[in-house]
């Protein structure tokens, strides 16, 4: 077979049985569940933002203000996650040949920058209060608001856990982990308010600074992967090793080279050259490449896989 007969192809899925209709129905049902989790997170985070803004105003607590900033981040993250679920699901078009998944990285980077600035400002205010912390007010109301917010957050986490188990959505699962981690600043604010009610006003700036450090750590965790994705950094090394193992062990593959990966949101792009027997038919070579693609998709369902076949 001439080498010109081998070409770059983006292989389609093998023909599917009659269950494709059920698969489509499951996909639509999962999409609705993911949307419900997205709207629920926006509703809860919006309520938390308003309640903590009021609590921070009436108490004057910087620890509550830090928790408020954290809830603002939650609202932005949830809004970005819902937009990502809707927008990133759009198929590639003439203008966006690789899809629309990078919107997730843009939103995440903006969130990271916003929380970094907010945490820096609150930490600066807290440092100024360490020497002579002002007394707080309405600590009981503040504690009630924070406790109510924790109950709402736990209810949201339970629903997100249910949806993530049913749909396997990484966006919902990541949002769930984000809300779980938000319970720490809320607990810290409650400790600060309870301490202030007993004459320990120094707890408020100290806890605020600790919470700001946690926020900065979270901002780095959100912003660094988003920046790497926008800069076309390679996928996770552990994932690359698993792909290499699939390529190296698959029957009919003599070797492979030029394996390249990048990410956009939750989507992974994979390009690779596989070395196949040059004496076999194009149909046989195509079948091997199709099986390879299917195995990679079973491991990474959101992957976009392009396989180039080279004759040996």
Topology at a glance:
Layout: E1 8-9, H1 20-59, H2 62-87, H3 102-129, H4 139-167, H5 170-181, H6 183-197, H7 203-230, H8 237-249, E2 253-264, E3 267-276, H9 282-299, E4 304-311
Parallel strand pairs: 3-4
Antiparallel strand pairs: 1-4, 2-3
Helix pairs in contact: 1-2, 1-4, 2-3, 2-5, 2-6, 2-7, 3-7, 4-5, 4-6, 6-7
Please give a structural write-up.
This protein has helices at 20-59, 62-87, 102-129, 139-167, 170-181, 183-197, 203-230, 237-249, 282-299, and strands at residues 8-9, 253-264, 267-276, 304-311. The protein is of the alpha+beta class. The chain has two domains: 20-230, Alpha-lytic protease prodomain-like (Up-down Bundle); 236-311, Alpha-Beta Plaits (2-Layer Sandwich). A four-stranded mixed β-sheet has the order 1-4-3-2. Helix 2 (62-87) runs parallel beside helix 7 and helix 3 (102-129) runs antiparallel to helix 7 (203-230). The termini are close together. Mean pLDDT is 75; it is low at 1-21.
């Amino acid at each position: 077979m001439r080498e010109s007969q081998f070409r770059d192809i983006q292989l389609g899925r093998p023909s599917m049985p009659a269950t494709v209709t059920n698969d489509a129905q499951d996909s639509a049902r999962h999409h609705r569940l993911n949307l419900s989790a997205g709207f629920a997170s926006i509703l809860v985070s919006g309520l938390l933002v308003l309640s903590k803004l009021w609590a921070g105003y009436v108490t004057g607590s910087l620890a509550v203000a830090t928790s408020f900033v954290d809830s603002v981040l939650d609202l932005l993250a949830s809004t970005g996650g819902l937009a990502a679920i809707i927008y990133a699901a759009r198929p590639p078009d003439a203008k966006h040949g690789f899809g629309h998944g990078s919107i997730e990285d843009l939103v995440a980077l903006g969130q990271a920058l916003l929380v970094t600035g907010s945490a820096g400002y609150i930490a600066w205010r807290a440092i100024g209060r360490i020497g002579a912390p002002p007394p707080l007010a309405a600590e009981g109301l503040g504690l009630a608001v924070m406790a109510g917010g924790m109950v709402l957050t736990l209810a949201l986490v339970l629903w997100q856990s249910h949806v993530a188990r049913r749909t396997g959505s990484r966006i919902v699962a990541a949002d769930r982990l984000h809300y779980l981690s938000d319970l720490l600043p809320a607990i810290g604010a409650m400790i600060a308010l309870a301490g202030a009610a007993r004459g320990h006003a120094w707890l408020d700036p100290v806890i605020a600074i600790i919470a700001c450090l946690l926020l900065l750590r979270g901002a780095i965790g959100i912003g660094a992967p988003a920046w790497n994705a926008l800069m076309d950094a390679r996928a996770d090394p552990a994932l690359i090793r698993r792909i290499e193992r699939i390529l190296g062990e698959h029957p009919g593959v003599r070797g492979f080279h030029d394996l390249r990966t990048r990410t956009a949101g939750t989507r992974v792009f994979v390009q690779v050259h596989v070395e196949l027997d040059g004496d076999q038919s194009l149909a046989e070579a195509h079948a091997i490449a199709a099986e390879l693609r299917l195995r990679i998709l079973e491991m990474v369902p959101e992957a976009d896989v392009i396989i180039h076949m080279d004759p040996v």
